[in-house]
């Protein structure tokens, strides 16, 4: 570093006609006297390169124009390592901050990024708990980025205006699942984007042709006002009946929401009385969806069928006599996968669709409920 500084000074000496040492401790080459404790090279009236010691940043800084300064890497003998717990106001002299959140949330308040271009600070969560280490401030547009994984690290650097993240390691994505009900989803602190998978409720399987109540369809799964994974429509009835239409979806894209997949649900297995005139026959299989298995048809002794899971269709009831017809399997709910970016500060209302009821008061298998799976990335 000393050789680097001396080289700069010699370059200035060789190209200037005057040399002066002034009482303010500034070393000035040329006619300009600077009040910022800088070495100034007077090249011309508008371009005066400077090198200075910044007491606040604890670093040597260089400027090409005398107004915007950049810190010279490794200009101090050793990095400043600070070990903290609880609440701490990060200093510009800190190079590495070791944050301990073993007794509760640790909040690190970031210093101003403006005017400190090139300042780099490394943070590490050194405890083994899942307690949060919060960087109180804004990094890459994310408010209060948070570390929750043991030994997670984050490196930030100032571009002179805002803090930027240039390195983040050992942060495992997190998962949130909703398999029933409704409510509000709030992304964890520090999430920069998430991928959501949503399926609508599957349809109930039909009972055999002995009569009874008809199967019902599934209902839609909704999220955030921009996503709806449709529930499967009801089968046409019991016995020989058409399978209901699979669920269809809607997704409203925007600057923060992008579509990855949009799949209409499939149909359950149908039976025809003319095609199957057997005395004993199992019921139709429910549609198999992306997240769940379709319900198996009821056995050929006329027993009840099996339920589907997570958006898949219920099975149809079997038969044990040639005078009746086996039930049709239920259809699948629709499936949507979407990418949501920059979710900080947002909340999302959700409702998980319900599966349809099987025909003949449940002799047909129930449709699988809807499902929401969210993978969160930091």
Fold and architecture overview:
The structure is a single chain. Helix content is 5%, strand content 31%. The protein is mostly beta strands and 378 residues long. The protein folds into 3 domains: 2-71, no CATH class; 81-169, gp9 (Jelly Rolls); 173-378, no CATH class. A 6-stranded mixed sheet has the order 1-2-3-4-5-6, with helices on one face. It has a 5-stranded mixed sheet with strand order 7-9-11-16-17, with no helix packed on it.
Write the layout of secondary structure elements.
Layout: H1 2-15, E1 19-21, E2 27-29, E3 38-41, E4 50-54, E5 59-63, E6 69-71, E7 81-85, E8 87-89, E9 96-100, E10 106-109, E11 120-125, E12 133-136, E13 138-139, E14 142-143, E15 146-147, E16 153-158, E17 163-169, E18 174-178, E19 182-185, E20 193-199, E21 221-223, E22 227-229, E23 249-251, E24 257-263, E25 335-341, E26 348-351, H2 359-362, E27 371-377
Parallel strand pairs: 2-3, 7-9, 8-10, 9-11, 10-12
Antiparallel strand pairs: 1-2, 3-4, 4-5, 5-6, 11-16, 12-15, 13-14, 16-17, 18-27, 19-26, 20-25, 20-27, 21-22, 21-26, 22-23, 24-25
Which class of secondary structure composition applies to the elements? mainly beta
How confident is the prediction overall: mean pLDDT?
A: 83
Percent in helix = under 10%
* Strand line-up across the major sheet: 1-2-3-4-5-6
Name the poorly predicted regions: 1-26, 28-36
Count of helical regions? 2
Name the beta content range. Answer: 25-35%
Major sheet size, sense and barrel closure: 6 strands, mixed
Quick one: overall form? elongated
**H and E order:** HEEEEEEEEEEEEEEEEEEEEEEEEEEHE
**How widely separated are the two ends?**
37 Å
